[in-house]
Amino acid sequence: MFRQRPDADMVTHGWVVGVMIEIPGERAPVRHYFAVGHPDRARAEWAAVDQALATGAVASSPYQGQEPVEALREVAVYRARELGLLKGEARALGDKFPRRWLPS
Fold it and tell me: What is the Cα–Cα distance from 43 to 2, expressed in whole angstroms?
């Protein structure tokens, strides 16, 4: 008989990733946020960079102590299910801090 792990809903489903994008006309790079449905942190960061390149050039070096690409927090399975994040999906969340995706 199949048994589900007691912590199955807490397993990592994806990541919220911040990517600094250089936008023409702005003095400094602007951080854009992405929800990525890859449990592997490195794959999630690369998927976010691929998505960010459609908006503009990714910053090449840190700015005021912030890395150009940074996985901010894991997205648990239950949270991804609530917000509709599919496995392998990279969703742009915009440049405002994604409070809905990052519960305290």
Answer: 30
- What counts of helices (H) and strands (E) characterise the chain? 2, 5
| Mean pLDDT for all residues in the chain | 88
- The 3-state DSSP composition of the chain as helix, strand, coil percent (nearest 5) reads 20, 35, 45
Q: Which two tokens stand for residue 3?
A: 């048994």
Residue ranges of E strands in the chain: 12-22, 30-36, 57-58, 69-76, 90-94
pTM above 0.70, yes or no: yes
| DSSP state for residue 63 in the 8-state scheme | B
Mean pLDDT of 31-50: 95
> Collapsing DSSP states into helix, strand and coil, what is residue 48?
helix
